[in-house]
Inverse folding.
């Protein structure tokens, strides 16, 4: 056997080995591609979920601010009611005094 024959044998062996490797690697490549697609989908889903959570957090902050504003308004209304009660009480006393004056002519 000369060098040319050895080179041809080596080439055939390489070719057969590469074919066998390709046969074994094809399902692995396919699985890796599928896993990559699944990971990309999961990553996208995670990003969408995070965006939704950020929006909810922002909405909650706005709602908390609105509630604080409403509480302050209610406190102001309660203060006004207390003032009106006091004024009403004074008016009732004044009406009572006027009625007595009218009855007794004083």
């Amino acid at each position: 056997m000369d060098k040319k024959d050895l080179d041809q044998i080596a080439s055939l062996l390489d070719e057969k080995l590469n074919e066998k490797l390709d046969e074994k690697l094809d399902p692995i490549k396919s699985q890796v591609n599928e896993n990559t697609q699944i990971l990309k989908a999961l990553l996208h889903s995670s990003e969408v979920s995070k965006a939704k959570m950020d929006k909810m957090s922002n909405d909650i902050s706005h709602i908390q601010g609105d509630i604080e504003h409403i509480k302050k308004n209610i406190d102001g209304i309660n203060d006004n009611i207390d003032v009106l009660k006091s004024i009403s009480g004074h008016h009732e006393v004044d009406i009572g005094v006027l009625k007595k004056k009218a009855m007794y002519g004083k």
